[in-house]
Amino acid sequence: MIKASHTTWAQIIFDVYLSALFKRHFHQLKLVSNQVSIKEHTSVLLLANHFSWWDGFFWYYVNKIFWRKKFHIMMLEEQLKRYWFFRFLGAFSVRKNSRSVLESFAYASTLLENPNNLVLLFPQGEIQPACIERIKFERGIELLKLNRESAIQLVFGYAHTEYGSNPKPAVHFFIRPTNENTVSEMERTYNLFRRECIGQLP
């Protein structure tokens, strides 16, 4: 697997690039719900929906303005090899349907033992249409071996784009803490949370 290798120079370059990119493509980025307190001595495991190429960028931005943790994101290995620069921003790889997937989730588990870290996972495992009726979680999350002695904050994230009367879309972000232990519980609760988020949209 490919591990993350944060560098300051990469973050400086990317932050400037991402700011310009967002201004060009979106007219608003808004954190709608803020039901998560910022805990300095707690790592964050963020589970979010995956409906577009932008998703990693979106949550990188939310982390930067809200949690300000050291950002990590699990990416498919073939994608990370193609976009190798993301490794220097916290991306690490997973290769589905291979034995190395165990190594990737073990690495994610280790990252979460550090209270300065945030790890973003897309439990759908692939990009799916935003309009799907129900989000199904893949079983890979069960491979996370979380140290119960470590302080880990499990958070659901939901991002939604809306055009309205503007030619550029607005992006609304919702976050909520949760404490489910099994994948089936997480999936059920996440879909309820998603439905509530959609109901709150302007």
Shape: globular
- What is the makeup of the main sheet? 7 strands, mixed
Give the strand content: 15-25%
Distance between the termini: 42 Å
Low-confidence spans: none
Strands across the major sheet, in which order? 1-7-6-2-5-3-4
Beta-strand segment tally: 7
Task: Give helix and strand order, one letter per element, not per position.
Answer: HEEHEHEHEEEH
The chain-level structural class is: alpha/beta
Mean pLDDT: 93
Number of domains: 1
Indicate the radius of gyration in whole angstroms. 16 Å
Q: Give the count of helical stretches.
A: 5
Helix content: 25-40%
Brief rundown of the structure:
With 202 residues, the protein is of the alpha/beta class. Helices cover 32% and strands 24% of the residues.
Explained architecture:
With 202 residues, the chain is α/β, with parallel strands linked by helices. It has one domain. It contains 5 helices and 7 strands. It has helices spanning 8-25, 55-65, 77-82, 100-111, 183-200; strands spanning 28-34, 43-48, 70-76, 91-94, 117-121, 152-162, 170-178. The chain has a 7-stranded mixed sheet with strand order 1-7-6-2-5-3-4, with helices on both faces. A hairpin with a 7-residue loop joins strand 6 (152-162) and strand 7 (170-178). The longest helix has 18 residues, at 8-25. The chain is globular, with a radius of gyration of 16 Å. The N and C termini lie far apart (42 Å). The mean pLDDT is 93.
